[in-house]
Structures are given as C-alpha cells and as structure tokens.
Amino acid sequence: xxxxxxxxxxxxxxxxxxxxxxxxxxxxxxxxxxxxxxxxxxxxxxxxxxxxxxxxxxxxxxxxxxxxxxxxxxxxxxxxxxxxxxxxxxxxxxxxxxxxxxxxxxxxxxxxxxxxxxxxxxxxxxxxxxxxxxxxxxxxxxxxxxxxxxxxxxxxxxxxxxxxxxxxxxxxxxxxxxxxxxxxxxxxxxxxxxxxxxxxxxxxxxxxxxxxxxxxxxxxxxxxxxxxxxxxxxxxxxxxxxxxxxxxxxxxxxxxxxxxxxxxxxxxxxxxxxxxxxxxxxxxxxxxxxxxxxxxxxxxxxxxxxxxxxxxxxx
Length: 315
What we know:
mainly alpha; AhpD-like; 13 helices
C-alpha cells in the first residue's frame, strides 16, 4: 500500500520531534546531574575546610571519603559525638563507641575510641569494663536469639525484674556460693526475686559462670555507673541487632535514671560507630596512617587543653 506523501511527511516530522524531545530530556537530565555534582563538590570542599578548622588538619580518611557521604557524616558526628552540650557526657559517649567497636569488631574504631575515652577522663578500669559489657551483651544475645525466646514472656519477665528492683528490700540475705546450676538458680532467685524463663536457655553446665559474670558486671557496683552500663549495653544490642536485649536494656537504663534523650543518644552513638566502621573497613584505609591521624588529633586536643588551663585565672 502506497502512503500519501503528506502522511509520509507527518510521520517523518513526528519522528524528528520524538528525537528532539528525547534528546532534550536527556540533555536536561545530564545538565541537572552536572549541577547536582557541582553542588555536592562545593559542599564537600566546605565540609573538609570545616574539618580542617576543627582538627587543625584534614585526616586522610576524610580526604578519600565519598563527597556524597562526607557532608552528612561530618554533620552527624559534629552534632552528637563531638558536641559538649549533649545529654550524655563525652566520656559516656566514647565508652559506648568503644564497646560497639569491640564487638563489631573494628580495629580502627577500637583504637580511636580508646584514646577518645581516655581524653575524656576514662580510667583503664572503665575502659576494660566497657569492653566486657560489650562481650556480655553479645553473649546473652546469642542465648536469647538462638533459643528463640518468646518475646511476650521475655518482656513480662523484664518488667517483673524492674518492679522487683523498685520495691522494698527483702532484708538481709545470706551470700550464696555459686558452684553449680542449683546454687546458680538459688542465687538468681535471691537476687531478682524469681528465676526468669530465659535462664532456662542456658545449659546447666554453663549457667554458674554465665550468671556470675552477669551479676558481677551488671548488677554489682563497679567503676561504671549502672545507668551508663545499661546505655552501653543498649547501644551494643541496637546494632547486633537483638530485639530482646534492646527491650531489656531500655528498661534497665530507665530504671537507672536514663532520660529519653540519653537513650536516644546512646543508640545514635552506636549508629555513628557502625557507619564509620563500615566505611573504614570497606575502603581498606591504611591502619598505620589512621593511627597516626588519631594520635595527631588527640595531641592537638591535649595541647589546646593545656593552653586553656594555663590561661585560666588563678584564685
């Protein structure tokens, strides 16, 4: 069938218009992408300038971090981890960062958070306890998750533990020497007011040691305050992730006097630490260079602290 010459012209025109329109859209997308990349690059340069101003130099990791990520990463770190006006103290935040780093595990973050914790006044004992708390949380997360604990029952047991802790003391008790499952259960009963169901997931041969570690580290007075211990445990649990442990440690943190802001910041520090660990390991950052940058950063802060102390008026 022969096509009308006019119809042929219309078809050709339609095809041309389609090409022009498609090409125009493609050009517009390329232009918009180019403009977005330009804005990102500008923001990234400004961010790296701000990092240099804050630290006195630009750590190598921030030089190689993606321009797309560096702006938000720095803003979050500066807003929470480095902010002296948050609900949590600098020491508590760094002990949380260390605990999370320890069980990821991330050698980069462990090195940094250990020095940052010391910089904020943490003792060797507090640092050791923070690491032990991370191990303990991961330990109980394995039991709870692996035994597929009933969450409704678990929540009820946690609330019962909290209520018993708030209630009046049962008076003087005789210390129980834990040597086997029977004495462990007796000590749990005396300490908590009952034996929670989740302890049944622990093999009898392991129960004495598992309970003793929990009691000595979490329930007994130690160098870290009970509230901070629960916040450290919550941070670890939140990124394992372990729903039962998150439920328990949130309630225990509240029992210790933690505010909603402190609970939120503890989880935030876990998120920041996990995010940085992922980027450091994924980019295979040179560990020697990383440590040198952290050492330089810490030395700069210490120098500033000495200068500030010497300039302070004496009475």
